[in-house]
Design a protein that fits this description.
This protein is α/β, with parallel strands linked by helices and 198 residues long. It folds into 2 domains: 119 residues, P-loop containing nucleotide triphosphate hydrolases (Rossmann fold, 3-Layer(aba) Sandwich), CATH 3.40.50; 71 residues, no CATH class. It has 10 helices and 5 strands, in the order E-H-E-H-H-H-H-E-H-E-H-H-H-E-H. The protein has a 5-stranded parallel sheet, with helices on both faces. Helix 1 packs across helix 10, helix 3 packs antiparallel against helix 5 and helix 4 packs across helix 5. The longest helix is centred in the middle third of the chain and has 25 residues. The protein binds adenosine-5'-triphosphate and magnesium ion. The site of adenosine-5'-triphosphate has 17 residues, from helix 1, helix 7 and helix 10. Magnesium ion binds next to helix 1.
């Protein structure tokens, strides 16, 4: 059984993943993989440079994330090119890492854009959405990453609406209380998933 863990920016995916990990559940983090695949010296960088030009690589050899973010923000074709290069690599790495934990009762893939990309529907058994209201998402995301409210809202605009996400969810954790409360809910899901696999 593979659970797709998702939710909007600042909803609490990483905190939930941390708790699942502490419970011994294998969690594959697509964001972490995306970062690793675009670290200095990775083959993906060569392909990105071929597509976008040398500007996409910073002086120290790492990905120029700021430049790239600006580029794809205003250019739909560029965004598709970027995704065409990165998404298959990320997916292949997720599949490889899942294979390493094939004996676990269940496994989790954490994909912020699980429903938006639709690219993981064939891999997952159930989806688990971490949900909270938008004002909480904004204040948490701002506190954590020093983004301004308009910047957080701009990211939220690239993600699906809360209602759509909730409609597509098999399971939902409402993370609008304390971290202790989040842990209680994660433990309850863990118990459920541990029983479901057999
Ligand atoms: N229930 C909670 N109580 C207090 N703080 C919380 C709670 N849940 C999450 N946070 C905090 O809010 C911030 C955002 O949470 P987290 O990083 O888990 O969200 P995320 O969904 O992974 O966001 P992103 O999409 O940006 O990766 C973090 O600083 C986290 O510690
Ligand atoms: Mg996160």
């Amino acid at each position: 059984m593979i659970i797709g863990l998702t939710g909007g920016i600042g909803s609490g995916k990483s905190e939930a993943a941390r708790i699942f990990t502490a419970l011994g559940v294998p969690v594959v983090d697509s964001d972490a993989i995306a970062h690793e695949l675009t670290a200095a010296g990775q083959p993906a960088l060569t392909r990105l440079a071929a597509a976008f030009g040398a500007e996409v690589i910073a002086a120290d050899g790492s990905l120029n994330r700021v430049w790239l973010r600006k580029k794809v923000f205003s250019d739909r074709a560029a965004k598709q090119t970027l995704e065409g290069i990165l998404h298959p690599l990320i997916r292949a790495e997720i599949v490889a890492r899942l294979g390493a934990d094939a004996d676990a009762p269940y496994r989790i893939i954490m994909v912020p854009l699980l429903f938006e990309t639709g690219a993981y529907a064939d891999l997952i058994t159930r989806s688990l959405v971490i949900d909270c209201d938008e004002s909480l998402q904004i204040s948490r995301a701002m506190a954590r990453s020093r983004l301004t409210e308009p910047e957080v809202r701009a990211i939220m605009d690239t993600q699906c609406f809360r209602e759509q996400r909730l409609a597509l969810a098999d399971d939902v954790i409402v993370n609008d209380d304390s971290l202790e409360n989040l842990e209680t809910q994660v433990r309850a899901q863990h118990k459920k998933y541990s029983g479901l696999h057999s």
